[in-house]
Amino acid sequence: MSDPKPFRYDTEVPPGQTRHLRYEISETYLGDPVEIPVTVVNGEHGGPTAFLSAAIHGDELNGVKVLQEVADRYDPAAVHGTIVCVHVANVPGYLAQQRYIPIYDQDLNRSFPGSARSNTAERMANVIYERFVRPCDFALDFHTSTRNRTTMYHVRADTSRPEVDRLARAFGSNLVLSGEADAGSLRTVATNDGIPTITVEMGRAHRFQPELIDRALDGVESVFAEYGLLPDAAVRWPGWTRVVDGNGDKKWLRADTGGLVEMQYGPVPLVYEGDTICTVSDHFKEREKRVAAPFTGLVIGSLQNPVAAPGHPLCHLVGVDDATLREIEREIDAGEFSERPWV
Ligand SMILES: [Zn+2]
């Protein structure tokens, strides 16, 4: 076991301490500081350093609640290693309750690792990255679906890399979408820098969804168990895991006609090939277009706003193999299947 070390950003948090701090990453038009809320829990015992972030997209709130709880619940006396929580990364977007940084609608999650001499987003990203991400050993970044959509609880990770696969599995979600993330995203940049990083996607923007938040807290604890930050905690494994690679077996179904959308599946998001997932009808009910499942799978994302134009994404379908299907059917029969992101 390694010795406990201070966590250094430009000052330091010694072992055995929790510090809640605000750290300046930019300035407003008035020249006032833009500060991110950060918690560092430095354990009394040595161990790895975990980075957690939320609200890189300013209106994605479930992760904000997860981090509030994580920052509060772990006593440094029990922690072997260090937990770094950036509660709200995109403060300007959070204040406006919107996804992007309001100045020129820049996407903070396409701006890593950033640069001290570039645009606003890149400067903010650069401070967050250099001070708080780079000193860490692995990272969890919490997101939700974008506005007007919802997504099933899942992890995104490049599971072709063993160290990322370990992190994704330890988090214990049923569904893992595997693949590289976009250039400039925290996940891509940190992973390429040797800091394995996963994205957790959970539910809707603008909401706290307690069931999903509780699951994510279990996931965080499971990760801490896997990496030895909490030697007495247990790694949790879900009843079934589906890892979907690349573009295989997943598809966004889109509207071909404009109109009113009515979802027809549920309450469980499992559909069989040929099942009607939703209909798109005109206001006179003279024309109704049925959208059928092209293969058997899980509806892992869907629109919430019930009007659509041609080309509008309606839902995101992920195929399941026979073994996974049997386990899901068994869980449904036993009343154990808990994926209900639509409520
Ligand atoms: Zn996001």
UniProtKB/TrEMBL annotation:
Q: Which domain of life is it from?
A: Archaea
Q: Which cofactor does it need?
A: Zn(2+)
* UniProt entry keywords in alphabetical sequence: Hydrolase, Metal-binding, Zinc
Please report the name of this protein according to its UniProt entry. Deacylase
> What organism is recorded for this protein?
Halobellus limi
Q: Which CDD domains match?
A: M14_ASTE_ASPA-like (cd06251)
Residue ranges of every copy of the Succinylglutamate desuccinylase/Aspartoacylase catalytic domain listed in the record: 47-225
SUPFAM superfamilies for this protein = Zn-dependent exopeptidases
InterPro entries recorded: AstE_AspA_cat, N-alpha-Ac-DABA-like, N-alpha-Ac-DABA_deacetylase
GO MF, one example: metal ion binding
